């Protein structure tokens, strides 16, 4: 497994602070694996979307997702809500 190709981005949403979901953690390789382990440990749903995660990875920590990603992220949130 090529750990340099593993990327993880965790999103949060706090409507009192932000108008849109925002990046709370991101990492590649070992850090990506640790983010995924923590998500599993806390029963946080994991959705794999390679193209979306690449775009989200470009954002800074606490940066809100840009408007052009609203639909893609909303679709994931609806999917998670329906689990």
Structure report:
- The chain is built from 3 helices and 2 strands, in the order ββααα.
- With 83 residues, the protein is of the alpha+beta class.
- It is globular, with a radius of gyration of 13 Å.
- The relative contact order is 0.20.
CATH homolog superfamily: secretion proteins EscU
Computed structural class: alpha+beta
Kindly, what is the distance between the CA atoms of the first and last residues, rounded to a whole number of angstroms?
29 Å
Please compute the radius of gyration using only Cα atoms: 13 Å
Total strands: 2
Using brief descriptors, characterize the structure shown.
39% helix, T3SS_substrate_exporter_C, two-stranded antiparallel ribbon, FlhB, T3SS_substrate_exporter, alpha+beta, 83 residues, 3 helices, name from scop
